[in-house]
Fold this protein.
Amino acid sequence: MLKGKTALVTGSGRGIGRATAQLLAERGAKVAVCARTAGEVDETVKLIAAKGGVAKGFTCDVSDEAQVKKLFEGVQREFGGLDILVNNAGVFGGTFVANTSLEEFNRVFAVNTAGVFLCCREAFNLMKGKGGSIVNVSSLAGVQGVEKFPGFGAYTVSKFGVVGLTEVLAVEGKKYGIRANVVAPGAVNTAMLHSAFPNSDFVMLSPEQVASAIAFLAGPESSGVSGVVLPLHSDLLKG
């Protein structure tokens, strides 16, 4: 299904990113595994290789422009191009808006929104000649009309930014055959969510469920889809 394609998945050292990298590899893609922690990157690469997949690990802080440029140079060197970009790297952060420092707001925005921008910009330059698919991971926090959790103002703003950026990319990518879409999950059973909400009793999506949605938007089954926000509601699992 994705044989001959190259995919880069940021934040793929664990959680949603790891599940996505594994699924794309299972479907035939060569995968560039990227995260800040080398040990987690290596583990994901080993898991892919153990099932016969092809993967190469990269460490990168997506909020750092120089590191992002180096990452994409590495992907180009190792794989000869890029067909799929999944922007999954992200952080929780912030507190009640009235108590949030500009430093904290900027820290969250730098990873969750500026990091997506930097990766999309570099991906565009690699995809312009042949087209490609970009899937950005936002959140229900970034979807209009969904009630927000108090105390996560910076995170919410950053995820709205991802949606807006994706809608612009979808328009700008048309003439190049580049599609851009968003997956916006609710609660997902990851270490990051458990850290932010310890002892919570949320009904949660699994990382694999989110990965399936990402893979759909990344692959040929969704070839006519661009500029779409796909919300994933964990509370629907109750039924």
Remarks:
- Strands lie at 6-10, 30-35, 54-59, 84-87, 132-137, 178-185, 229-232.
- The mean pLDDT is 92.
